[in-house]
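S.,

As promised, the iron/sulfur cluster run. Input:
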Amino acid sequence: MDARITVDLNLPEDRASPRPRRKSKRVWVGGTAIGDGAPVAVQSMCTTLTHDVDATIRQIEQLQEGGCEIARVAVPDKRAGEALKEVVRRSILPVVADIHFDYKLALMALDAKVHKLRLNPGNIHNKDGVREVVRRAKDQGTPIRIGVNHGSIGDRQPGDVRDEAQRMVDLALSEIKILEDLDFDDIVVSVKAFEVPVMIAAYRRLAKAVPYPLHLGVTEAGTALSGSIRSAAGMSVLLYEGIGDTIRVSLSEDPVVEVKAAFDLLKSLGLRDQGLTLVACPSCGRADIDLIPLAKVAEERLRALPTPMKVAVMGCEVNGPGEAKDADVGIAGGVGKGAIFRKGKIVGTYPEDKLMDALLAEIDKILIENGKEPYSQKAPKLSHAGQLTPGRSVPAGQRT
Ligand code: SF4
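Predicted complex:
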């Protein structure tokens, strides 16, 4: 008897990589391209008071060091608007001015030559003001992002049978129409929601309805761990389908963490390749070194790696090098010592307390072999040294 299951799961064509990117117009935010096959751009938003120019510039520099490609700043009032010229002049990244309701603030941002505006023309009641902003943005080549959030679509009217995703899409389309009627098409669009299924449905429908690049996000996603997971749950579905041209992971955290989460998401899908990709085993009773703190030390010390590199930290020599044979370089634990391996082949053995330095030295060798600058001298210092793997009471090298 044929026992095969023949249920039609209605799955998309099986493939080992994301679908090709959805075709869209290309928009330039300063020197960063969005859409039309450009790499998915990573952006974040400053948490500083924009009028505190020194603090804002410092944070933009930290974001840039983390790999961020576009920085958004809030422009809630005239003081922030007046600071924009200085922010734009000193910023190492393209600057997006986030504006609500007040067209005069948008004009100030255009005077400051910001690289993109984020505003919804339907929220600005002065229609002559909207026309002036759009005319100036067009003259200066400044794109506009229309950002519809689920929280901003208002209460459902009696008799409205549309679902939440459709209400967001329809609002976005009406905002887009205002710009198109003014002969403006340098547009990016977002339809963010906290509820992941709503957000996915809204972006899918919008992707079919407009030719513009899409800015993906899950709003108010939460703190670092839960917010990163929620953001990844929504955005990875869309990105895998080829939808999404720039992303922001919104976290109640230092925005540098948002950038790290964004890159980890894009790297997981094979959409970007940047710096460290850490392969680390979860540890188990077989581990011969204190794996968890060692993995954290490695992540911290290697986070500024300038070139893409896959680095493994594995708890035992039995499974470590084999399981992580795709890694460029790695550590596999032995009792009180550990092996350094490259592409699964052991190249040296060191005492546990020298392993991290040995790993850095091996990474320097790889960089030099590839004509790059060594890294170890620039590596950030560590803060997890001396900790034990949770549940262990003695260092792994002293176990009996
Ligand atoms: S690599 Fe070794 S220590 Fe790590 S989870 Fe696998 S068996 Fe356990």
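The mean pLDDT is 92. The chain has eleven helices and 15 strands.

- D.
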